[in-house]
Amino acid sequence: MQTTPEHNERIAKMTFASVYPHYLAKVEKKGRTKEELHQVISWLTGFDDKDLQSLIEEKATFQEFFERAKLHPHANLITGIICGYRIEEITNPLTQQVRYLDKLVDELAKGRKIEKILR
Question: Does residue 103 belong to any structural domain of this protein?
Answer without folding.
Answer: yes
